[in-house]
Amino acid sequence: MSPLVVSLIAFVIVFGGALLGMCVTLPESHLRDEIKDVIRLSAGLIGTISGLVLALLISSAKSSYDASNTQIKQITSNIIYLDILLEQYGPETNTLRVALRDTVPRMVDRIWNERINGNKSEPFVATTEAVALIERIQELKPDSEAKRDLQARMLSVVANSQQIRFDLFAHAHDSISTPFLVILIFWLTIIFASFGLFSRPNPIVIVTFFVGALSVSGAVFLILEMDRPFAGLLQISREPLMHTLPPLAL
């Protein structure tokens, strides 16, 4: 289910809870000050817990989003660096530089598909192009100390990029727990319903509840959007990685 649909459902439930609370007519025996104080204290406790949970979820989702964005940038810089090392090695690596340019689009598609679809039942499998590129770098026969150093640095860059790929794959299945989200929306609904119990319907009150419900559902939308950084409105752009290497003129 998309984040927009989930956030709309959350809005309807929370706002509906506030309207339902306003429609409930309590008997006079339930309107004593001590009863109101108990309800307000309970609502305040639930509100505090809900606020802390929302803050933690937003912080966690933002950290996960930033981490994925940083990993993509690291892969981009590694590809640029690897191309520079291949160029410095000499003209005998021109075919490897061409192969690198052919490998990048397939790698990008694989990363984005893994993170969007989850691939929960499929094991990690490196692309044949990537495996062939690594083998061809290992098969280079450097004839000087400088070239041996370049080859070692190439393999180090490739190993670092592969480690980042493993991390991206390992986190492809991470997501906000559905029961956790249901409980959070339930808490928010209880809070708004308790506010509505002691409020009579009028335009100002209804607009206030509307804005409040819209705000908390917007927070849910942001959490779910940042929880899937490779899709949706806040997705990480693949264009810098796709076009990180200029066309090779041999």
Structure report:
With 250 residues, this protein is mostly helical. It has one domain. 75% of the residues lie in helices and 0% in strands. It contains 8 helices and no strands. The protein has helices spanning 3-23, 33-89, 94-117, 128-138, 145-170, 178-197, 203-226, 239-242. The longest helix has 57 residues, at 33-89.
Look at the helices and sheets and give the structural class: mainly alpha
Annotation, overall tally of beta strands: 0
Q: Helicity, in percent?
A: over 70%
Segments where pLDDT lies below 50 for 5+ residues? none
Beta fraction:
under 5%
What letter string, H or E per element, gives the SSE order?
A: HHHHHHHH
N-to-C CA distance? 48 Å
Global geometry: rod-shaped
Number of domains: 1
Task: Quickly count the helices.
Answer: 8
Report the mean per-residue pLDDT as an integer. 84
